[in-house]
Amino acid sequence: MAEERRISAGEIRRTIATSLGAAFGFVIGLLWSNVVLFGISTAGINLSPTGAGVGNWGNWAYFVVTAVVITLVMVVLIVVVGRWGGKD
Q1: What does pTM read for this prediction?
Q2: What single string gives the DSSP state of each residue in 17-69?
């Protein structure tokens, strides 16, 4: 007969930490995707079929700073959650 396997609290914590780390990484990726697309739009390169939404460089710079701050916060959260998940 197969032995019954119990799930430990450490295993659950590691799984949650891995999932949260991936989610935070996904948020960072989406954010930087928007930064790049807004920069391209601001440079006057039309990526949309409607041709709408050329911004200005000040707004783009603000967007970059916001993305950097959010990236740093997400990286810190990934490290914290990773350490929490690594506890046995």
Answers
A1: 0.68
A2: HHHHHHHHHHHHHHHHHHHHHHHHHHTT---SSS------HHHHHHHHHHHHH
Q: Given this model, what pLDDT does residue 20 score?
A: 93
| Separation of alpha carbons 60 and 4, rounded Å | 56
Cβ atoms of 20 and 81 closer than 8 Å = yes
d(CA 34, CA 31): 5
CA distance 43 to 38: 9
70 token code pair: 């959010």
Q: Is the dihedral of CA 77, 34, 63, 68 positive or negative?
A: positive
pLDDT, tens digit, 9 for 90 and up, residues 24-71: 999 999 999 999 888 888 888 766 555 455 567 887 788 888 889 999
Amino acid (1-letter code) at residue 43: A
